[in-house]
C-alpha cells in the first residue's frame, strides 16, 4: 500500500486541504473556514480534526502518512516557526510542534513554509514549471508576490523576503504609498488594485476586457503595466536568473493577451544571456498551494 | 601532513595563483602573465607548469593536493566547460578535463567557476562575508558585477547570469548604450567609468577626492550614484534577500564615505523585512579570487 501525504494551504478566509498519494496524485480536496477569532487558536486543531477524519474515511492509519505540509501567509523559519502572522491572528507559533502534539505524529514529518514559496513549489512540481530546473513564480492578484525555486529547493531569503518582486522600488513619480509603507513599489502599478487605480475603473478585469475590445485608453494602461512588469522580471532575472517565470494570481486569468505583452517588455529590458527565459501562465491556480505543501513534506 | 589546495584566478592580463593549506591559510601567491595569443592556448599549460614547480619547491607530491580551483572571466557550466571566453581568446574549453590531462591529476578534483562568483565565494569564506549565512557581492570597477552565495553555495543562474546587478534596467533618461547593448543599466551610472562620465572628470577617484574635499557638484554626483546603487541593492534584496551585501572592486576604495551613502539610500528604498541587511566593504581585494577558487575545490 502506498503512503499518503497531506498538503494544507492556510489562507485568511479558507483553509484548502489536499489529500495526495505520495507520487503526487490528488485523491481528494476540501475547504475549511479559517477561524481567526481568539488569536486563531482553532486553526491547527481544525486541521488536525480534518486529517483524522480523512484518514478514518479512507481507512488509513497514521503510519500510512509520509508527511504533512502546510503553507501559511507569513514568514516561516526553517524550524517551522511562524512569527506574528497577522492574517491568521497568530503570535509566535511553531506549526510542526503544535500539530505534532495535536496528532501525536512525529514533528519531523511536518513541514511549514510561506504560502507564496509553497505555491511556487507546487507549480514547479506539478504545474507549469515542471519542465524547468528553476522557476520564479510571480503572483499578480490583490498584491504582487512571488516564490523562487532553484533545483527543487525554495529560496526563502535571510529575512523570509526573497522573491518579493512586488516590493522592488521601480516606479518613479507616484504620490501615494504602498501597503508596505514605501512609495514606488512595482505592486503599486502591477497588482489588480494598482491596474484598476491607473485606469480609473472598478477592477482590473474591466481594464483587460475593455482593452481587448479595442479601448485605446485601456490598452495604454495595459502597455504601461506590462512595461513595468517586464522591467521587474528583467531585474529579477539579473539577480536570480531562473529558467522560467510562472505568472499566477487572479490577473493572470487575462491569459495570453497579458503574458505576450509581458514577454515583449521583458525582452526589451532583459540582460542578453537571459533574454530567452520562458514566461508562462501558472496552471494549478488555487490548487498550487496544496500541491506545493504536499511536496514540502515529501 | 596536511593537504594543500591551489586557487587560480585567471584574468585578462594576469593569472593570480594561490597555494593554500586545506584549512585556507595562504602559503604563497604568485602572478603569471595571461598569454592570450593563439586563442589562449598557453594559459592552462602555464598554470600546470606553475603547479608542478610549486609542488617541487615545497617538496609536495600530487597526492598531497586536495583540489585545484579556477576562476575564469566568463560563464562556466556545472561540468567546468567555458563557452567562448572572449577575454582569454578561448573557444569552448573544458577546464577540468584539459588541466587533468596536463597534470595527470583526477579531473573530479578540479573545479572551475565564473570569476565574479568565485570572488564572492572568497569573501564569504575568508573575507568580509565570513560571518554571514548568505551574501551578495557587488563588484564596482570598470563594470558592475556580482556574485551570490547562499548557504555556502554559489548561485550561478540558469544562463550563468545570476547576480549581474549591473545590468538591471534601473536608469531612465540615458541617451547612450551600455556595453551590453541595452540602455538604462545600473552599470552605466554606477561603474567607475559611469561615475566619471556623469561628473565629466578623468576618473572616479577624482570625483570622490573632490567630493570629500567639499566640491558641491561632485557631492551631487556621488549622491546620485549612491541613490542608484541603493535602488539596485533594494531590488536585489527583494529577489535574493541575502544576509549581507559585500561591496568590492576598485571604487570601493572610496571607503566608508561611499559605503555609508549606499546604506542611506538602501534603507530608503528597501522592503521593510530586509531594511537592516548588512552592507560592508570587501576585505580580500585582489585576493578574493584565489581564496574563492581554492574554496571551490575543497
UniProtKB/TrEMBL annotation, chains A, B:
It comes from the Bacteria. SUPFAM superfamilies: Actin-like ATPase domain (SSF53067). It holds the Pfam family ROK. Transmembrane segments: none annotated. Belongs to the ROK (NagC/XylR) family. This is ROK family protein. It comes from Lachnospira hominis.
